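> forwarded from #structure-qc
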C-alpha cells in the first residue's frame, strides 16, 4: 500500500488517503457505539475469550490497587499526545495546495483539532466505561495482556457479529496505513525543495509527466524507509524502535521557543513589534521551550517507553552529519561549476 503511495505520488496518494481515512473513521465510530451501548456483563463475558490461560476479568481487575488519578502519571503520558497524536494536525497545512476552497483551508486545523479531541476522548472513555477503570489500567500495564487487550480487540469481541468484527479489525489497520501514507507524501516535499535549492541533485525535483509527482524523490524515500524499518526489525524486533528519532525534532522546537524569547527581548532594528507583541512572543516562546524541554527529558529518561535506542539516535545524528556534508559539497560544486553561491538562499534561514 505504501509502495503505491510512493509511486502514485501526491494526486492519487491523497485520494487513497481519503479512502483509508473514511474506512478508519467509520470503524472507529462503530467501535465507540458498540462499547457504549453493549451491556457491561456481555462485554466482560466476551473479553474472557481474549484473556490468556490463568487470567480472568475479576483477577485482572482485582490486581490493580493504585489511585484513580496521578498527576505524575498523567504528565508521563504527555509525549504520547504531544508527539504521536496532535502533530498530525499539520497534515492539512502540509498539503494546503491540494485543499479546495478557502473555508476548507482556513478551518482545516481548528476542525482537525476538534475532531481529534472528540474521537480520542470518546475512544478512551468508551474503553474504560465498558470494562471499568481497574481492569483496563491493569490489563494495559501488564506485558502479558497489553498485546491482546486494546480498544480495537475489545470492540471486536464485544460486537458479537463476525462482519462487524472483521470491519473493525480492518479499520484498525487502515488507520496505520493512512498515517504512513501521509508521511510518504509529505516527507518527499523536503527532498523536492532541497533539489530546487540545488542542495540535493536536480533529479529529485523531476516531475513524472504521467503522475505529476517527483517520482525519483518518492523512490528514494521508499528505499530509505524500507532500510530503516528492516534495521529496526533485525536489531530490535519492532519498527517502533525508530520512535525515539523524534527527539531531535523536540530539541529543535525547544530552540525555536528560546529564539522567540531572544527576539522579543533584544530590540533588533530589523524587527518592528509593539511592546504587547513582544510580551506575547516572549511568553509563548518561554512556554514552548519549557514544554519541549520536558518532552526531551521524558524521551531521554524513559527510552524503554518511547523507543530511545542507538538506532533511533543514530538516524538523527546521521541526518545532521549528512546535511552538513551535502550542503558543503553542493555549495562547492555549484560555485565552481555554475558560479552560483547557494549560501545566499540561507542568508536569513540557515539550512537544517
Amino acid at each position: 500500500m505504501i509502495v503505491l503511495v510512493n509511486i502514485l505520488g501526491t494526486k492519487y496518494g491523497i485520494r487513497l488517503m481519503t479512502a483509508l481515512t473514511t474506512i478508519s473513521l467509520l470503524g472507529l465510530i462503530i467501535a465507540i457505539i458498540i462499547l457504549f451501548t453493549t451491556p457491561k456483563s456481555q462485554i466482560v463475558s466476551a473479553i474472557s475469550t481474549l484473556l490468556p490461560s490463568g487470567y480472568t476479568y475479576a483477577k485482572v481487575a482485582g490486581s490493580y490497587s493504585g489511585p484513580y488519578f496521578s498527576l505524575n502519571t498523567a504528565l508521563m503520558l504527555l509525549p504520547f499526545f504531544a508527539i504521536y497524536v496532535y502533530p498530525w494536525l499539520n497534515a492539512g497545512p502540509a498539503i494546503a495546495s491540494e485543499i479546495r476552497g478557502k473555508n476548507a483551508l482556513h478551518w482545516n486545523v481548528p476542525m482537525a483539532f476538534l475532531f481529534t479531541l472528540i474521537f480520542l476522548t470518546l475512544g478512551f472513555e468508551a474503553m474504560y466505561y465498558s470494562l471499568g477503570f481497574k481492569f483496563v489500567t491493569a490489563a494495559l500495564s501488564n506485558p502479558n495482556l497489553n498485546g491482546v487487550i486494546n480498544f480495537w480487540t475489545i470492540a471486536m469481541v464485544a460486537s458479537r457479529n463476525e462482519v462487524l468484527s472483521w470491519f473493525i479489525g480492518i479499520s484498525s489497520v487502515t488507520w496505520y496505513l493512512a498515517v504512513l501514507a501521509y508521511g510518504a507524501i509529505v516527507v518527499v516535499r523536503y527532498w523536492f525543495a532541497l533539489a530546487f535549492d540545488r542542495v540535493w541533485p536536480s533529479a529529485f525535483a523531476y516531475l513524472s509527466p504521467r503522475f505529476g509527482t517527483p517520482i525519483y524523490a518518492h523512490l528514494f524515500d521508499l528505499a530509505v524507509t524500507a532500510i530503516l524499518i528492516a534495521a529496526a526489525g533485525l536489531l530490535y524486533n519492532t519498527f517502533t524502535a525508530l520512535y525515539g528519532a523524534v527527539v531531535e525534532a523536540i530539541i529543535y522546537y525547544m530552540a525555536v521557543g528560546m529564539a522567540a524569547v531572544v527576539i522579543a527581548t533584544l530590540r533588533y532594528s530589523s524587527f518592528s513589534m509593539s511592546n504587547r507583541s513582544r510580551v506575547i512572543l516572549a511568553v509563548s516562546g518561554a512556554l514552548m521551550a519549557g514544554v519541549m524541554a520536558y518532552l526531551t527529558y521524558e524521551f531521554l529518561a524513559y527510552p524503554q517507553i518511547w523507543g530511545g535506542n542507538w538506532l533511533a539516535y543514530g538516524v538523527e545524528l546521521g541526518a545532521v552529519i549528512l546535511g552538513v556534508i551535502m550542503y558543503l559539497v553542493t555549495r562547492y560544486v555549484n560555485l565552481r561549476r555554475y558560479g552560483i553561491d547557494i549560501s545566499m538562499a540561507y542568508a536569513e534561514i540557515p539550512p537544517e
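QC bot note: The chain is about 70% helix and 0% strand. The chain has a mean pLDDT of 82.
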